[in-house]
């Protein structure tokens, strides 16, 4: 744009200079005839002078019109240049304002970077906390499973212990009943033996008094039944067996 404006101004200057040169070169210079006489025809000389002035005026008018057009072009270029300068000036002012706010922007940027770093560290801590929480949850689940298994084992042991206690009580009752029955049978056998021995003694005594001798008696073998087997009073072995069986 500056180059075109310079060319327009240069062309206007060249046109004005050329017009002035033509005017200066076309002006009549008074001359005197060599012999000192006047011109032959004054009428013809005035017409030539008038024609020359008319031609120069027409040339100047044409050049003035061209200069006016060129001046208008220059004015348009100047207006465009003014607008462009104002636009660039406003842009420079805006850029200056932005540059003035640049320290604040940089400070905010540094603050944002610091905040991002803090948030990153917090996220890392949260991630570690989540890992610990997950491990704690897994450990809690395992402990719950272990407690559940212990409770089931305890219930099973208690159930078995209850059954063993019932069996122990039942066997103890049966043992006591058998002991009582055996004791009763021993008492009956003892009583029967005493009665038998007493009868035999009385009979032997009677025979001795009558004959003075005691006869030998054949002792019949006594068949022992399972019910007649004497049960020992010492039940420590049975109690020890029942205690060992009742333990889980």
Outline of the structure:
The protein has 248 residues and is mostly helical. Helices cover 83% and strands 0% of the residues. The protein is rod-shaped and about 230 Å long.
Topology:
Blueprint: H1 2-26, H2 42-211, H3 236-246
Helix pairs in contact: 1-2, 2-3
Describe it.
The chain is an all-alpha fold. It is 83% helix and 0% strand. Helix 1 packs antiparallel against helix 2 (42-211) and helix 2 runs antiparallel to helix 3. The chain is rod-shaped and about 230 Å long.
Which properties best describe this structure?
Dysbindin; 248 residues; Dysbindin domain-containing protein 1; mainly alpha
**Which structural class do the helices and strands define?**
mainly alpha
Helix-strand string:
HHH
For this structure, the quaternary state is single chain
Q: Runs with pLDDT <50, length 5+? A: 27-43, 218-232
Number of separate strands: 0
Overall pLDDT level: 78
Report the helical percentage. over 70%
Whole-angstrom Rg: 77 Å
Q: State the end-to-end CA separation.
A: 111 Å
Shape: rod-shaped
Task: Supply the number of helical segments.
Answer: 3
Percent range for β-strand residues: under 5%
The largest pleated sheet is described as: none
Family: Belongs to the dysbindin family.
Protein name: Dysbindin domain-containing protein 1
């Amino acid at each position: 744009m500056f180059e075109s404006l310079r060319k327009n101004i240069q062309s206007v200057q060249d046109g004005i200079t050329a017009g002035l040169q033509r005017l200066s070169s076309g002006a009549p210079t008074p001359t005197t005839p060599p012999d000192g006489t006047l011109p032959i025809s004054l009428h013809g000389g005035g017409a030539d002078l008038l024609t020359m002035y008319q031609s120069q005026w027409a040339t100047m008018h044409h050049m003035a019109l061209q200069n006016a057009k060129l001046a208008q072009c220059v004015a348009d270029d100047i207006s465009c240049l003014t607008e462009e300068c104002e636009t660039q000036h406003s842009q420079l002012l805006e850029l200056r304002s932005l540059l003035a706010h640049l320290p604040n922007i940089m400070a905010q940027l540094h603050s944002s970077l610091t905040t991002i770093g803090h948030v990153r560290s917090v996220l890392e801590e949260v991630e570690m906390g989540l890992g610990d929480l997950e491990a704690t949850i897994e450990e809690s689940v395992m402990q719950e499973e272990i407690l559940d298994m212990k409770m089931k084992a305890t219930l099973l042991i208690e159930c078995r212990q209850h059954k063993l206690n019932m069996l122990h009580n039942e066997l103890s009752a049966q043992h006591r009943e058998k002991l009582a029955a055996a004791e009763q049978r021993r008492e009956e056998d003892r009583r029967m033996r005493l009665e038998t021995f007493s009868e035999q003694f009385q009979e032997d005594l009677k025979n001795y008094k009558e004959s003075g001798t005691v006869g030998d008696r054949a002792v019949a073998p006594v068949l022992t039944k399972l019910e007649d087997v004497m049960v020992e009073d010492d039940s420590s072995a049975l109690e020890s067996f029942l205690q060992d069986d009742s333990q889980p």
